[in-house]
Structures are given as C-alpha cells and as structure tokens.
Please model this.
Amino acid sequence: MVPEAVAAMADELARVGNPSSLHTAGRRARRVVEESREQLAAAVRARPSEVVLTSGGTESDNLAVIGTYRARRRADDRRRRVLVSSIEHHAVLDATEALAAHEGAEAVLLPVDRTGRLDVAALEAEIARDPASVALVSVMWANNEVGTLQPVDDVVRLAHAHGVPVHTDAVQAVGQVPVDFAASGVDLLTVTAHKLGGPVGVGALVAVRGAELEPLVHGGGQERGVRSGTLDAASARAFSERAEQSDGSLPGRADRVRALRDRLLAGVLEAVPEAELVGAPVDPALRLPGNLNVAFRGCEGDSLLYLLDAAGIECSTGSACQAGVPQPSHVLLAMGLDPVLARGALRLSLGHSTTDADVDAALAALPAAVERSRGASLATRAS
Ligand SMILES: Cc1ncc(COP(=O)(O)O)c(C=O)c1O
Model:
C-alpha cells in the first residue's frame, strides 16, 4: 500500500459510524462512502450508481458469474451455458466449474492463441450454436500471468447481438491501461484495490443498472440489495483515492514501467539467449506495460523462484501444486506451450514502485539462478 492510502485508511478507521445509520456519525460515514463511490466511478468512467463495493476481485468475479447465471436461468431455464476464456483467473474459472458441478450449468472454455489472446471465431461459433442457451460470457480485460490484452470490443459485439451479457475481469487492467466502462459496453466489470497500491480486501463489481444479478450474500440490503454487509468506509476511501490517483498518473507511469520492463526483457535475453518471451509481443496495444513472462527451458520455475527470492527478487510462476507435484500454469497450457517449457516460466511484474535499481538487481541475479536451477533439474532427472 502506498503511504497516502495507509494514512487515509488509518484516519478513517479511527472514526466511528455505520454508513447505514441515520445519526450524525453514520451520515458522515455515508458521505465518505458515497464520495468514494463517485471517485471510483469516475476513474473507470462509470456512473456512481453502477459501483457495487465488495471484498475484492474474487468476490466480484463470483458475484458476476454465479449471480448472473442464477438470475438469467431463473428467467429462462434454457440459459445454462457459461462461456469463459480458458485463461481466466481461478475466481472466474472455479466459479464456473462450481456452477457446472452443482447447478446444471455447462461450462464452455474458449480457446486462446499462442499469445494468450481469445479466439474470437471460436466465441462466435459457440454463441451461434445456440444463442438462447448462453447465460453469460466472461473474458478478462488482460491476463494476470502473461499480460495479454483481450479483444473485449469483439466479445461485447458478438454477445450483445444476441442479448447475452458480458463480464470482464479488469483486475490487472485498471491502473495499467485506460479502462472505460461506459465505452466498452460490458455489463459487468471487476476491479480490486490492492493492484493499485490500495488495501487488500476491497474491490468492486461495476454493473450496469439493468444487470440481471442475484445476490450471493443476503442481509441488510446494502449496495442495491446485491451485496449486503456493513459498508467499510475506510477501505472504500483508500481504494477510491488510489483509483483516482492511478487514473490521473496513468500515461506517464505506464510509459515509465514499460521502459523498465523492456530493459528487463532485453537484459534477460542478453544474459540467457535461449530464454523465450511468453505471451504477446511487448507492444502497448497487445500487452500490459508491467508484465513480463519468460520461460527458461530445462528449469523448474519454482526452484528459480526460490533462488531469486534468496537474492531479494520476488516473482511468481503461476504453477499450482496438486498432490505435492507442481503443475504448469493452466494459462500457459491453454496457450499451447509444451509442459516442459511451461514449467520453466517465470512471471516478473513491475509496478509503480519498481525502480531502475530493481531491474539491475534482477538482471544481476538471474543468470546464476538459471544456471543453478538447470543443474538441479538435470540432477533430479538423473537420479
Ligand atoms: C485477474 C485477477 N482476477 C482476480 C483476482 C483476485 O482478486 P482479489 O485478490 O482482490 O480477490 C486477481 C488477483 O490477483 C487477478 O489477478
């Protein structure tokens, strides 16, 4: 969290008042929440009345997918197909799979190309197959592991031609690329505070006024009755201040981060020439500025991660552990990477706090880590 957000949140936490109470303290807290809602809405070009505050990206994704499915199927029992890209975050994928396992949904995983971009023709064919059976389409704005920007405009055009609502998980996009909710035409958009230097545990689902959405959480009827629970004024304030700040500083910041990322990539390729860039080319129209994903054939991403961690470089692999065995990331497999290469992939994220010195440190640590990780993988295979 950036210091200003910590200060704003601490200031607000020190005050009392339930924003739903009618007394003076409650009315003051309500004002904070409503001003935050306005600020947040302005940052993503939505109306304040379209912002539903939640506990973060995971809850917003679940509310969008499950809430829309339930509402639309209740209105028409044929609407059982949920179309999602195969590279979605687990918050969307697992919500969809839960609907398939327990509520009669049919999960349709849409393919992506080698760069991680949605196959628009496949989406078109799936919708055309039986438009009346589609409950929802969910395609993220940008992928979290490889940074690939998605053709959201095409998704909206194809889905809306048949009256099908569209959700987009914009958790990675907001603050990194311009996100205009109104112009995009999507019905539902997920955003979270902790990607913007705000607190963990607060986010929003931006939902057009007429969105068919059944609440997942029942109670006091806050947030248009879609998301009950006492409103968290402190988190809302820190979140919205960060959203406004990130929006205002976006152009210069994105260019700075992109330059650092490009220097990191060039340095990696120079130090380890056989390393492979994973995902879209580093083109502003195709990839998030702060994302780098590079694969080192013959290395275990997780061992690289620990070796770099010991050198003070914190990164991630996207791999999941199943029954104690590391599995390559579902995103990389969906992109068609062979599993051996996918296991050597490393995601290096750069953000507002990343400096030139951080890039130098990563470049200084990487060659030795790759060497050691390769040696370890060879030794494991030999034994
Ligand atoms: C694309 C994407 N969606 C959803 C989430 C989950 O958001 P949260 O951590 O706020 O629950 C993340 C988290 O990193 C993400 O990258």
